[in-house]
Amino acid sequence: MKKILLACSAGMSTSLLVSKMEAVANERGLDAKIWAVAQDKAPEDMKEADVLLIGPQMRFMKKKFEKTGQELGVPVDVIDSVSYGRIDGSAVLDHAIKLIEKN
Amino acid sequence: MNKFMNMLENVLLPVADKLNNNRYLTALRNGFMVALPIIIFGSIFVVLANLPFLDKLIGEDAYQAYQQALSPASQATLTIMGLFVITGIGYKMVEQRGGEAIYGAAVSIAAFLVLTPQVLGDTANVIPTSILGAEGMFLGIFTAFIAAELYQLFVSKNLTIKMPQGVPSAVSRSFSALIPISLTLAIFLAVRILFGFTDYDTVQNFIYTIIQAPLTSLGSGLPATIIAVLLIQVFWFFGLHGQIIINSIFDPIWYALNEQNLEAFQAGADVLPNIVTKQFIDTFIVGIGGSGMTLAVLLAIFIVAKSRQLKDLGKLGIGSGIFNVNEPVIFGMPIIMNPLVIIPWLLAPVVVAIVTYTLMSIGFVPRPAGVIVPWTTPALLSGYLATGNKIMGTVMQLINMGIVFVIWLPFLKVIDKQYYEAEQKAN
Fold this sequence. Notes:
The complex is a heterodimer. Chain A contains 5 helices and 4 strands; from the N terminus they run βαβαβαβαα. Chain A is of the alpha/beta class. Chain A has one domain (2-102): 3-Layer(aba) Sandwich (Rossmann fold). In chain A, strand 3 (51-54), helix 3 (62-72) and strand 4 form a beta-alpha-beta unit. In chain A, helix 1 packs across helix 5. Chain B folds into 2 domains: 24-217, no CATH class; 224-426, no CATH class. In chain B, strands 1-2 form a two-stranded antiparallel sheet. The longest helix of chain B has 36 residues, at 391-426. At the A-B interface, helix 4 of A face helix 1, helix 2, helix 13 and helix 17 of B.
């Protein structure tokens, strides 16, 4: 199962993306757990995740999360802002899977 | 233009990075988040206790009894919110460092109480609630920072009592905190005693006079507010979360101002002391669809847009926009780095801030009552609640939506035309 964690300031706008990504994962028959949290919860939840993607508006937190990510072996990246604006579940899911597989 | 924008982003990104990853500001922001559910609980009951027309409906006496019955809900939460903020900050400070966070919370509360004069007038053995609320907000924040740091320092110096093997870990943990906590609190006691010899008498008084009063009076003014609003917009223009960056600096001021209004509101004052408060920003400037008040922009899109792209954006953005989540608009229009929107994006919130401030200062619209309305509360309702159940709060939000609509309209038409022509060419 692929465990994909998204984070933004309050976990609100990323949760919009979660429902879109879940729908795409279902269509593809992909076994995935996708959830969104507020930035302060992210380091804790990373322990249970295969990858962390953060909203582009929080990209200034990437360095901080990368540090935790390295300790836990969890890749961290920023969601592409065009995909974010379109709430493009498919593109972000691809992005997440690529990161997990590369890891 | 592009070069200039890249240059600006190169300046802003490190600033956002610094502000947001600063240990103290992070603890402050996350500490407030700990207090928030408690504050909102209290706010709900302030709203319920001040329902309109209820006094006419059930009679003056019954209404007073009703208000009395509900008052503990806000008195125990919103009124003494400083206590919960301290708890949160102390906890988060120690948690960041990987220490035992609960001791960080405990030592911060204790340190704050050590500094607190436990008399009120001639009555001894009381803790004045005002000190746990607005007045003590800044001292509480500093105390939590310092107490948690001292605690961590003493823990890291290994000044702990080592327990022999076989002692249950919970037991040895409770002792391991003993020395660091004792030393920390002893320092705070010394500080309190020393202040007793000064003209300020208490640390509360000192921090309030030297730091809190000047900062809040600065923060309650229109210039500082415009600067804060502009900074939020500029950060967002570069796709960086403006509020989370600016709020970590302004929140202590805005919340303290908010508490002053709450005290006055609950005391039944006719005119509340402050215009700019936490809710002034959250309800009347940000809380109309999110930063930049994009709900009005979405309305404009529904009315005038011909291009596929903007029409789709409207459909995509409206659902979350009602609840003040507007990343789809910001990244989808896009607003970020888009030279066509920079003027309305920066101008509209400033004009709205000035108009709201003016209308509140002349009394046309009631000032925020000090209740904390969750930021996801839809516009129009939030204005009503934030002003203490006053319909004029809703009217103010409508006026603000009108302002944003008018400022955006010409620019939106240009953007729409561009998109529309590009779409026609592509077909």
